[in-house]
Write a structure and sequence with these properties.
heterodimer, A: six-stranded mixed beta sheet, five-stranded antiparallel beta sheet, globular, B: mainly beta, seven-stranded mixed beta sheet, four-stranded antiparallel beta sheet
Chain lengths: 112, 118
């Protein structure tokens, strides 16, 4: 099956700085890579996703990049705000499967 | 539109007892998934229903876990008898049916049930 590794496990940044979270995956057949944000006491929510036929996707202050050759993808958050503080999970889905394989999560703290 | 709901939000039981978790997916979603997160680790897949049928139960840890999806609507996950290592947060997610390569693969998560086995 797929194996997803995520780094770092914790990340603290000053408000206004950028944050980058990186993930690697093992199965070259994986074709969908979502990022979920889980605020304290709330459900995980999709914030951005990318398919394997695209190298980069951006939505306002967040962007995801995918390097299929190296089998890694990254989440970039620019101009961070205190409300960005949460646990972020990357995941991968491989072709033909329906379930997601998740990373271990990154706790992001934005310091005002 | 109501989101995925789960009940209870928290459950504390003793080792050897039985617990049943419930998930109500978004109406009309054929796919229903159960995941579990043990503290500090990844959210790990348990099983997947398509309507009332188990499509993939490869993630179920052992035969103490039994999942059902009556009539293709809500689902239950029973743990009997519970062990200490079963503690964690159990998430349910749902998604509409789609053909490979079509539409969004987004899975909508519930708030989770925090299970503590003492």
């Amino acid at each position: 099956g797929e194996n997803v590794e995520q780094h770092p496990s914790t990340l603290s940044v000053q408000e206004g700085d950028s944050a980058v979270i990186k993930c690697t995956y093992s199965d070259s057949a994986s074709n969908y890579f979502p990022w979920y944000k889980q605020e304290l006491g709330k459900r995980p929510q999709l914030i951005i996703d990318i398919r394997s036929n695209v190298g980069e996707k951006k939505d306002q202050r967040i962007a995801v990049t995918l390097n299929k050759t190296a089998k890694h993808f990254s989440l970039h958050i620019t101009e961070t705000q205190p409300e960005d503080s949460a646990v972020y999970f990357c995941a991968a889905r491989y072709l033909g499967a329906n379930n997601l394989f998740f990373g271990t999560g990154t706790r992001l703290t934005v310091i005002p | 539109e109501a989101g995925v709901t789960q009940f209870p939000s928290h459950s504390v039981i003793e080792k050897g007892q039985t617990v049943t978790l419930r998930c109500d997916p978004i109406s009309g979603h054929d796919n229903l998934y159960w995941y579990r997160r043990v503290m500090g680790k990844e959210i790990k897949f348990l099983l997947h229903f398509v309507k009332e049928s188990k499509q993939d139960e490869s993630g179920m840890p052992n035969n103490r876990f039994l999942a059902e999806r009556t009539g293709g609507t809500y689902s239950t996950l029973k743990v009997q008898p519970a062990e200490l290592e079963d503690s964690g947060v159990y998430f349910c997610a749902s998604s509409p049916w789609l053909d490979e390569g079509q539409g969004s693969y987004e899975q909508y998560f519930g708030p989770g049930t925090r299970l503590t086995v003492t």
